[in-house]
Design goal:
The protein has 251 residues and is an alpha/beta fold. The chain has two domains: 6-16 and 101-250, 3-Layer(aba) Sandwich (Rossmann fold), CATH 3.40.50.1000; 19-96, Putative phosphatase, domain 2 (DNA polymerase, domain 1, Orthogonal Bundle), CATH 1.10.150.240. It contains nine helices and six strands. The chain has helices spanning 19-32, 39-57, 61-75, 82-96, 106-116, 127-137, 154-164, 178-188, 225-236; strands at 6-9, 119-124, 145-149, 171-175, 191-194, 216-218. A six-stranded parallel β-sheet has the order 3-2-1-4-5-6, with helices on one face. α8 (178-188) links the parallel β4 and β5 (191-194). α1 (19-32) packs antiparallel against α4 and α2 packs across α3. The longest helix is centred in the N-terminal third of the chain and has 19 residues, at 39-57. The two termini are 26 Å apart.
Length: 251
Amino acid sequence: MAIFGVIGLDADDTLWHNERNYNQAQSEFAQILGQYHNEDWVRERLYVTETRNLEHFGYGIKSFILSMIETAVELTEGRVTGQDIGRLVELARGMINAPVELLPGVAQAIPLLAEHHRLALITKGDLLDQERKLENSGLAHYFSEVEVVSQKSPAVYAQLLRRFEVAPNRFVMVGNSLRSDVLPVLSLGGHGVHIPHETTWTHEQAELPRPGTPGFHSLTDFNGLPELLQKLETGERFKKGSSNMADFTDL
C-alpha cells in the first residue's frame, strides 16, 4: 500500500507549456500599443492591471484578455480603436485554441505514478479552458480528481484534503510555482515538490525555502518524480506518526 494517499499535480507549466503563450500575447499586445507608449511600459502596466483584477476575474485567458482591454483603454485615454480591440480578442482566441504540448518526461512519468498512486489535478484558471487542455493532453483518464480552484491557499488545500480524506503528511503537491504549489502545502505539514519551468509568471515567484525545510523537494524535470516518490515512501515507512484524519484537528 502506498504511503502517500494522494499526489496532487499542477497543470500549466508543470504538465504542459502555458506561460510562453501568455508571453507571446503580451509581446503582440505591446506592439499594438507601441504607437502610444514604450513597449516595456505597456507590459508593466498590463501586469499591474492583471494583479489588480485577480480578485475580480480570477486567473486564466478570459481574465487576461479583459485586463488587456482595460489597459489599452487606460493607456490610450479611450482612443484605442475597435479594430485594435478586435485584434486583442483574436489573441485570446488563438491562446484558447493553442495545441497542448506536454513538458519533457510527463508522458512517461504520469502512467507510472498512476499505477501506484491516486492522482489529483489541482490547478487555477478558467474551468472550460483547463478541462479542454486536460482532455487534449491525453492524460485525463489518469486522474481520480480534477479541481480547478480560484486560489491555492493553505485553507483551500486543507479543504481539498478533507474532501480527499487524506492527512497532510500523506499528501504530495507537485508544481512549478513555489507560491501556489509548494509553500501552502508545506505550511500544512505536507510535501511539496518544486519542478521549475523555464518561464514563471512574476506573480507566482517566491523565495526558495531554506535548505532542510521539512517536506520540501526540488527536481530539475518531471522525469525524476517517480524515483523521488519511491525514495520518500521508503523513508516514510520508518517514521512514526499518525496517518489518520485526526491530523486535521489543527487545520
